[in-house]
Structures are given as structure tokens and as C-alpha cells.
Amino acid sequence: MDSCVIPLRHGGLSLIQTTDFFYPLVEDPYMMGRIACANVLSDLYAMGITECDNMLMLLSVSQNMSEEEREKVTPLMIKGFRDAAEEGGTAVTGGQTVINPWIIIGGVATVVCQPNEFIMPDSAVVGDVLVLTKPLGTQVAVNAHQWLDNPERWNKIKMVVSREEVELAYQEAMFNMATLNRTAAGLMHTFNAHAATDITGFGILGHSQNLARQQRNEVSFVIHNLPIIAKMAAISKASGRFGLLQGTSAETSGGLLICLPREQAARFCSEIKSSKYGEGHQAWIVGIVEKGNRTARIIDKPRVIEVLPRGTTATTLVPDNFNASSEPTL
């Protein structure tokens, strides 16, 4: 599961805890701190938990950086992590810092819960609908942005995407990765979610398969739609890397994949976009739960939903040859 659930000796309470860390993947140290914190908290949110009692920060400072670089970069990463924790209603109370060849940032999130405060990810039923709350393609966007300065790699994708489109996708990916899944976690209770996971390093297919294996009922997940940051599907295909359309492309701090009752899914998608939760929250119906042997698959020709970066219109982006749609269908 995304988090460990440890029954406590006192009053039917459970200790729920998760940890994660990784290397920097964006250029902005402050945003990297925010993304790292959002990624740690996301494992709690995947269980419908909206409150976190405590966070620890894990930080590795690179010995290969100059003292001046360390003094500028490290406080920004720490501030980003702390600010995201504060946005999540919690605080960083400690942690560990080491010197290492690489920069690493991550943390530990801990909460004590009553049984009604979390949703075990094991109760999907036939007829449920799968909803995803962030678009896919973060790894593709980050890598494409790095390739702007690598002629050999850029030459493989420049026929399907412009430099401006790569910049827009990179900014969109960075914004999405730094966005907390807390709103979606709260709405899981409102709309009677049966199970959920967050989409990170194993891609949407890997995490769907893992979630399917946890189910108590004999069900399988079938994914029909793939919401993807605009142009990233074309880059994945042109580069011959990532496996984005096959669902194997890694994501960082991705959205929640939630099993919802069919009659609730559309209302969930509509509610999460409400302005009362702030800007940037999205959701798409991406698949169904059917009778099966606890597996997950993506259909042979999934519908690609091209998700436009904020502040752009359809005419801003050059059309590609993919079967693209702005509306999810089943």
C-alpha cells in the first residue's frame, strides 16, 4: 500500500506513516522542495487522509557543489518543503541532513487516525469508475526540457514539438507536481470512494496493477482514456522512450487514481474543479472496474486527452496526429 497502517494500543486508533525521497528533477530549488513535500504527503492523501500530524525532512547536500551554491540552493529547497507542508496544514519538526555526492530531498509524514478518517484501498466493486486527478507526462516534460540543450536528443523530437511548447509543458508539469492532492483526498469521503492510489514511479499501469492486486473482490481495472500534458504523447512516440501511451512512463507527485461509484464519478470531477478549492484542480474519468482476476490493463488504442497548459488555447499548440480529445469518454 502507499502508507503503512499500524494499529495502536489505545482506543482503536491507527498510526499511518509514509516516507519517500528522490533527486532533483526541476531547475528551481524552491519548487523542488514543494514537489518533494507534495510527493511525500500524497501517500497519505491516497488513503483519503486530509490531515498530517507531523513531517520530518530528509536532505542530502551535494559535496560537489561549491559553498556558495550550497548556501543559496539548500535554504530555498527547505523553504519550498516547509511552505508546502504549511499549505497541507502540518509542519516540519525535524529530520536529517547528510553530505553526499548527490542532492536528495524527501521526508516522512505521520498521522494518528480514527477508523473513519482513512479509506483502505481494497473495496472496489464491479461497475465502479476510475478517476484520475492530474494529467500524465511529467517525466516526459522534464526530460524534454533538458533536451533543449542537447542537440542529439532535441533533433529526435523537434519535428513534433516547438521549444515554446516544451517550455509550457515543463511549467505545467512543475505546477502539477507541486500541487497537493489534499482536495481530492477530502472529496474521496464526500463521494464514497472505494479505493485509491497515487500515480508515481511505476506509471499509471504499474500503480493500477498494484491497486488491483489489493482488492478484496474479484475485479480488474480497464483504462480507456489517458489525460496527458499537451504534446507529451507525441514526444514519447517520436523519442522511442518513456512508454507514455503504454502507461509505463514514471510520474513524480502524480494525481490520485480513485475507484468511485459510477453515479458519483461525474459529480466528483465537477466538484474538484470548483473555484472554492483554488485553481489548478482537475479530474478525468479514465476507466472502469469490471469482473476479473485482480489485474489492470490499458486498451490497445486508448483515447489521448490532450491537457493544455494553463494560459494556452488549442490554437497555441500545433496539432499532432494522435487521436486527441479534450473530453473524456468511455
Overview of this protein structure:
Residues 2-106 form the PurM-like N-terminal domain. Synthesizes selenophosphate from selenide and ATP. This is selenide, water dikinase. Pfam families: AIRS, AIRS_C. By secondary structure, the chain is α+β, with helices and mostly antiparallel strands. The chain has 2 domains: 4-113, 2-Layer Sandwich (60s Ribosomal Protein L30, Chain: A); 128-307, Phosphoribosyl-aminoimidazole Synthetase, Chain A, domain 2 (Alpha-Beta Complex), CATH 3.90.650. Helix content is 33%, strand content 26%. The chain is built from 9 helices and 12 strands. It has helices spanning 29-45, 67-87, 138-147, 151-157, 163-178, 182-190, 203-213, 232-239, 262-272, and strands at residues 4-7, 14-22, 54-62, 92-100, 104-113, 129-132, 195-198, 219-229, 256-260, 284-291, 296-307, 324-325. Strands 7-9-6-10-8-11-12 form a 7-stranded mixed sheet. It has a 5-stranded mixed sheet with strand order 1-2-5-3-4, covered by helices on one side. The protein starts with a strand and ends in a 5-residue tail after the last strand. Mean pLDDT is 94; it is low at 318-330.
Write the layout of secondary structure elements.
Elements (H helix, E strand, L loop, with lengths): L3 E4 L6 E9 L6 H17 L8 E9 L4 H21 L4 E9 L3 E10 L15 E4 L5 H10 L3 H7 L5 H16 L3 H9 L4 E4 L4 H11 L5 E11 L2 H8 L16 E5 L1 H11 L11 E8 L4 E12 L16 E2 L5
Parallel strand pairs: 3-4, 8-11, 11-12
Antiparallel strand pairs: 1-2, 2-5, 3-5, 6-9, 6-10, 7-9, 8-10
Helix pairs in contact: 1-2, 1-5, 3-5
